[in-house]
Write a structure and sequence with these properties.
This protein is of the alpha+beta class and 273 residues long. It is 18% helix and 31% strand. The strands form four sheets. Strands 5, 6, 7, 8, 9, 10, 13 and 14 form an eight-stranded antiparallel β-sheet that branches.
Length: 273
C-alpha cells in the first residue's frame, strides 16, 4: 500500500514538471557576478602583413582573409575591406596611451592617460614617436566603443575601434558626424544619442609619397527606430551605460594592438584589394 502511494506521488510530481523552459525569462542568469574584468572586449584590427590571420601555421589563421580586411580576434570573424560592417558608436573616449617598445612591452599600455597635458612632457624622436623622459612613448588615441550590427540591425558583438596616427583625423570627423546629426522631436530638432546612430565602416587603401596603409571610411546610414529596433536600442544603451560606469579599459584585449596597428604597418608596394 505504501509503495503504491509513493509511486503515485512520484508520478504526480513528474506530471507537474514543466514541459519546456522559457529561457528568455532567465536572461543573464548565471552571470550575476561577472564584471567588466571577467570578459574580453576585442579591438577590431585592420589586417596587415604581420597579422596571425594571414599565417597558415597560426591557429588564428582565417581562410580568405586579405590585407586591409578587418578582424575580430574574439569571434574570429573577418569583414572584407570594401564591404565593411555596420556599427552603433556607443561611447567615445580620447586617451594618451603610454607604451613600452616592442620586446619590452607586457602587451598592454603601461598607463592610460586621459589628460592631454602629458603630451607637453614628450619629445618627438627620429622615428616619429612622442617619447617621455622614461623612454616610453605616447599615442594620442581615439577610442570608439561600438556595437556591431548585422544587416537586419540585430546585435552581433561589442568591440573597440582605436584610431590614432594617420587615422586620428578620421576619429575627429566621425565625432563631428555624430554630434551634427539632427532629428525632429516634440520640442524641435535634437541630437540623438550616439548609440541610436548607425554607421558603415569599411577600409580603403591610403598612401603617402613612399608608403601605403589601410584607412577607415565612415559613412552614416540611419537612426535606429524605437518601433522596429527597440531590442537593439536597449542593447546599445546598456553597453553605453556599462562603459560609462565600469572600468571599460580593464576588459579591452590589447594583444597585438601595437603589432597590428602601430605606424599603420605601411608598405612600399601598393596592394590591390
Amino acid at each position: 500500500m505504501i509503495e503504491k502511494q509513493q509511486e503515485k506521488a512520484i508520478a504526480t510530481k513528474k506530471e507537474n514538471l514543466p514541459s519546456t523552459l522559457d529561457l528568455e525569462s532567465m536572461e543573464g542568469q548565471g552571470n550575476e557576478f561577472v564584471t567588466a574584468r571577467d570578459t574580453k572586449l576585442p579591438i577590431l584590427k585592420i589586417i596587415y602583413q604581420n597579422s596571425p590571420v594571414l599565417d597558415d601555421k597560426d591557429p588564428r589563421f582565417v581562410e580568405g582573409a586579405g590585407l586591409y580586411d578587418i578582424w575580430s580576434e574574439t569571434s574570429g570573424k573577418v569583414w572584407k575591406a570594401r564591404d565593411g560592417f555596420l556599427v552603433t558608436p556607443c561611447l567615445y573616449i580620447n586617451t594618451f596611451n603610454e607604451w613600452q617598445d616592442m620586446g619590452e612591452s607586457t602587451g598592454r599600455p603601461v598607463k592610460i592617460h586621459t589628460d592631454p597635458a602629458i603630451m607637453s612632457e614628450t619629445k618627438r624622436d627620429a622615428g616619429g614617436k612622442d617619447r617621455l623622459p622614461n623612454g616610453n612613448y605616447i599615442e594620442d588615441t581615439g577610442n570608439h566603443f561600438v556595437m556591431i550590427l548585422d544587416k537586419d540591425r540585430n546585435v552581433e558583438e561589442q568591440a573597440l575601434i582605436t584610431m590614432k596616427s594617420t587615422q586620428k583625423k578620421k576619429s575627429k570627423m566621425w565625432n563631428s558626424m555624430i554630434q551634427s546629426r539632427r532629428m525632429q522631436g516634440k520640442k524641435g530638432l535634437f541630437n540623438p544619442p550616439s548609440f541610436s546612430q548607425v554607421y558603415k565602416l569599411s577600409v580603403t587603401r591610403e598612401s603617402s609619397k613612399d608608403y601605403t596603409w589601410g584607412g577607415w571610411v565612415v559613412e552614416f546610414q540611419e537612426i535606429l527606430s524605437t518601433d522596429k529596433n527597440l531590442k537593439t536600442l536597449q542593447s546599445t544603451q546598456a553597453f553605453y551605460k556599462s562603459a560609462m560606469t565600469s572600468d571599460i579599459f580593464g576588459k579591452v584585449d590589447f594583444s597585438q594592438e601595437n603589432q597590428s596597428q602601430g605606424n599603420n604597418q605601411a608598405t612600399k608596394e601598393a596592394t590591390p584589394f
